[in-house]
Structures are given as structure tokens and as C-alpha cells.
Amino acid sequence: MKYPNRSILLLLLIGGLITFFACSKNKDKGPSDELPADKVVTASIRGRVLDESGLPVAGAAVSGGTAQTLTDVNGTFSFKDIQTSSRWGFVKVSKTGYFTGSRTVVTEAGGSNYVTISLIPKIARGSFGAGSGGAVMVESGDTVNFSGTSVVDAATHAAYTGTVHVYAAYLDPTDANLSNIMPGDLRGVGADGRETGLQSFGMMAVELVGDGGEKLQLAGAGSGQVGGKATLTMQIPAALQATAPSTIPLWYFNDSTGKWIEEGTATRQGNSYVGQVSHFSFWNCDAPSAVVNFTVHLKDQQGRSLANTEIEFVSPTLGTRGGYTDSTGYAHGMVPRGESLLFRVLNPCGTAIFTENFGPVLADQDLGTKVVTTANVDLQLSGTVVDCSGNAVTSGYVNAILDGLYYGARVQDGHFTLVIHRCSASSAEVQLTASDNATSQQGTASAFVVTKGSKDVGELIACGVSTEEHVSFVLNGDTYQFLALQDTILTYRANNLFMIEAERKDFKGPYCVIRIKNLERAGEYSAHPSEWSTGFTPDGKEITYYSLTNTATSTVTSYGAIGEFIEGRFSGTIYLSPTGEPFVTSGSFRVRRTN
Q: Is the pTM of this model over 0.90?
């Protein structure tokens, strides 16, 4: 897979934290000596998984530490309070037909990180006989050449003698979406054992598969056998040819630790790098670089923190790379030492709404709080919703997808009105899906072309697809309810805890996390400390936070097989943090079992 060439400044989002690496042949400094020490922390990671067209991928398996879950219909996943490395937090995504996707995050205790992972289609590029070898073209100018060497089953290390099918993809380092496509992030562990920033001059993913679908490896890759090597050839993008060195380290991606590991070198031959490897995963031609740390906080003109807002750093000589703020409007990370940079904030349409120059960067940078003026174009959608019998839906929800963002409106007495604040009046397609709370049914998506102003979309049908998942609880006299389609409801396991997490799709408003220890069957359980949040200050900070004690109980009335439902209820006394004021709560859940 190749993407359009652009000049490049390697900035990589890591959750709400950004790593921005660059390399210049005029710099002779090594990796930063001021990087924080690695430690195990409790943090949260949420995000979305997209396909090659930018559409959500549902049902993808996501793992983070010991926690596992599946993405929902919107491609969303979430892990609350998992144990992770502060510098190498790692989430991994698997989906049939795609290479394994992943993201490595830098985080801190209590941090909440957001990531986007775009999966790479697994495309067959060619085949060869296991004993004879052969050359396989991945893209024009990018090849893998296999010598006549032995190949083994990756799981059993038994010799393989059939046809080797090669699945491969080339990742152009000048692609503007590189940070979402590539595995991990642009950091690695060098031969000296130290963490360093990386500038990529080309990446390649290679996977070997046997006639029976078994995963293969070159003999010698952990098999105890003597095996040969394969030769990778990667064409250097035109924008990087002037600065590409004559030799460059090779790095492979360790998909257990989330780290790029230095192993071997590649030599420049013309405008290509050529190097040999003894095993397969993702391989990367990277120059190490020196970095410093930075922090920035974004607020709008009303003083509210700008969460999940796109930002960019631009170098006049090296180009652009961008990322997003975290759930509190902050971005932390690393930028290249010695560079003068332009900082930009973008609206959802990609237009810069704030710019500022800073640098040259010689030491850690705290950019402070930046006030960004936001402006919107209003679009109002309205219509009616009926059930399977053609009767007006008295209580339901309409979910909308527009400009890659999610919106929603409640249905009352068969009618809905949805106001969307767009950043542009350009023509676009909105997809609307209606649901009926009474029947736990939703319809299929209907598409409409919109710009701005008012539009009556007519009648939507809420029928045909089950929306039976729900979580609800009563707290301090108020009832909070989360329903499939209009909200995000996820389940996963973390160590010996079964986690149920429910929150609004836009991550604004209430959420709850229910933890049940050692859940394996229907029955009574002691609830593990869990959380609720029901209010926010104007700058987005939570003001009402509850923690459940171990004295609370959960009753699981139904424990279905994987793909079926887990049903139950819970009750107990919880305490306002940090005052310790007690409250009695109770609730119920019906969620789909994913593992």
C-alpha cells in the first residue's frame, strides 16, 4: 500500500500524547538523556479502529495488557484503569483480512489516552516454493527476495515443504496518515538498549502463510534450526532522498512489547535501501534522533478544555505531522531538538483555527494554555420514526454520522430534531439510524446529502436489528441509562475482573464502570471497586466522582456463551470522592459476552 508523497516532519500521536521526531544530517547529538523512567501505572485507553477507507471496523479483537474486548458497531473500544507501562503502554487489534494493528502510548498514572488505529488490508503479493525461494514485488520498487532456504511452521517449528504465500504491504513514511496506520509509534530501543526517537525512510509488513493457512517463518527464527535470510528492498520517497544516509539501521516491531527493536542495517543503493532480515514482522528503515519534551493545553473562548482536538507541528524544511489532545485538552510528548516549529490547531474539517511559532527547541517546552476561537455552521435535521408495525416510536434514538463524527437525538412521540454544529457548509453525506427503546430494535442506516440549514429527512424505520444491550443505575435520586446505538457499551476482562463500561459516544456526560471479580457463571458476586461520573465543570473536569466499596454485591442472573448475553443487577453503598459522603445505588445490566 502506497500513499501520496509529502514532505515530512515525524510527529506521532500517542494517545493524547504526541511524539514528534525529526532527523537532520547536520545534527550530531544522540537520543535525549532526559526521558522519564519507565514504570507500571494504572491508566485508561480508548479509541476507534478504522479500515483502509476510514470506516469503522466492528467486531475487531482488541487487547491492552491483560484486558480484552471487541470493537462495537462504531469501531469503538475502551479499557478503564488497566495496568500498563508508562512509556510503552500497548494496545493491539486483530481482524480477519488485515495485518495486526497496534498503538504504543506514553501515559501517566490516572491518564486517559485516545488513539485511532487504521488497519492495513492483508493482500497476497505472490508465492514461492519453500525450498527454492523467489522474489515477490510488494509495490513498484519495493520487493522481498527469498533465497533457497528452509521455512518452518511458526507455532511448531516443524519444517515446511509446500508453497509459501506472501502477504505484504509497504508503508510510505511521507503519508499524512502514517501515525494511524503504522504499528506502535516512532520510538525504538537501539542496540545500546536506550530509547530513541526515529525518523522512518520506509516500512514494510511481511507475513508468510502455508497452504493450510498456517503462519510460517524463516527457519532459524526461534526454531533452533539454521536458516537463511530474506532481502528487503524499499524505495526511498522522493521527498526524503536528499537527506537519506548511505547506511541506516533496520528495526523490527515486537508485537508483544510495542517496541521497535534495532537489528541490522540497510545500505543505500541508488534511491533504495537494501537489507537482510532473518524473521518477519514489520520492518523499518529508521535514523535515530534527539528529542525534548513538550506540553500544551487547549481551551475554547468559553474557557472549556478542547478534548480530542487535532493539532500539528510544522517545520518549513521537514513538513508536517499531527495528533490530538487527550480527554482534558492536554497534549504531552516529544519534539525534535534544535527545530523552529509552527504550532497549529485544526477544526474537524482540517482548517487551521490557531497558529503560533516557537523554537528553536533546545530544552523541554511548556507551551502553556492556548485559547482557540471555534466557529460552527449549523445544520438541523428532523423527521419521524416508526416501528416494525408502522406505528410511531414513542421513545427511541436517532444516531447520525457526518464528517466522520457521531451525533444523536432522542425520539419522542415519533419525532426527532437533531442540531449539528459543522465546521464547513460543504456538501456531505449523513447516515441516520433509528432505534426503538420499547422493542430493542433498530433499523439500517439511511443516507442523505446535506450542507447547512434545515432538512426534513422524512420517515425512518426502527426495525430489524437487535439493540438489547443496556446499563442503568439510580444514584442520589437520579436515573442514568445507557442504551446500545445511542451510547457506548463495552465489556472486557482485565486479570480476574469482568468489566462493564458504559458512557456517551462523545465522552461527555455521565459514565459508569462496573467490575465483577472472578465472573464465570450465574450467581452472587462481591463487586470490585467501580466508578461513576455524573457531572463536569465548564473546563471539562469531573466534579462528581463515586467509588464503589467491596461491600456491594452483583447478582448475575444469566451468563450466556460468547456472543450471547450476561444479565444481572447490582446494589450497595458508594462514596463521594474525596469527601466520603455515602450514597445508596442500584442498577441493572444486559451486555453481550465477548470473551
A: no
Helices and strands (H, E) in the chain, number of each type: 1, 49
Nearest to 202 by CA among 146, 266, 115: 266
| Architecture of the domain spanning 470-592 | Beta Barrel (2.40)
pLDDT per residue as tens digits for the range 217-259: 988 654 444 456 899 999 999 989 998 999 999 999 999 999 9
In angstroms, the Cα distances linking 242 to 140, 174, 238, 348 are 20, 14, 8, 34
What nine digits make up the cell of 60? Answer: 475487531
Given a cut of 50, the residues of the chain with pLDDT beneath it are: 1-33, 222-226
Which regions of 140-258 does DSSP assign to beta strands (E)?
142-146, 151-153, 159-160, 163-171, 187-189, 195-209, 215-218, 230-235, 247-254
Rounded (10°) CA dihedral 406, 410, 416, 422: -30
Q: How far is Cα 530 from Cα 515, in angstroms, rounded to an integer? A: 6
Of 60, 85, 64, residue with least CA distance to 74:
60
Domain boundaries 377-466, corresponding CATH code: 2.60.40.4130
CA dihedral sign, ordered 334, 336, 337, 340: negative
Angle at 541 between CA 71 and CA 493, to 5 degrees: 30
Q: What is the largest CA-CA distance in the chain?
A: 74
Q: Do domains 124-289 and 470-592 have the same CATH topology?
A: no
Contact 273, 201 (CB under 8 A): yes
Q: Which of 586, 501, 503 is nearest to 552 (CA)?
A: 586
pLDDT of residue 220: 65
Amino acid identity at 351: T
User: Collapsing DSSP states into helix, strand and coil, what is residue 178?
Assistant: helix
Rounded to whole angstroms, how far apart are CA atoms 396 and 418?
A: 13
Its CATH class, for the domain covering 124-289, is mainly beta
**Percent of the chain at pLDDT exceeding 90:** 29
Task: Identify the three-state secondary structure at position 424.
Answer: coil
Return the bridge partners of 196, or none: 188
CB-based contact 232:144 (threshold 8 Å): yes
Domain locations along the chain: 124-289, 377-466, 470-592
- Tell me the pLDDT tens digit for each residue of 306-344: 877 888 887 665 556 666 777 678 887 777 778 788 999
Contact 586, 569 (CB under 8 A): yes
So what's the pLDDT on residue 305?
85
Cα-flanking dihedrals φ and ψ of residue 280, to 5°? -125, 140
Per-residue pLDDT at 15: 31
Closest CA to 117 of 60, 58, 52, 48: 48
Q: How far apart are the first and last CA of the chain?
A: 33
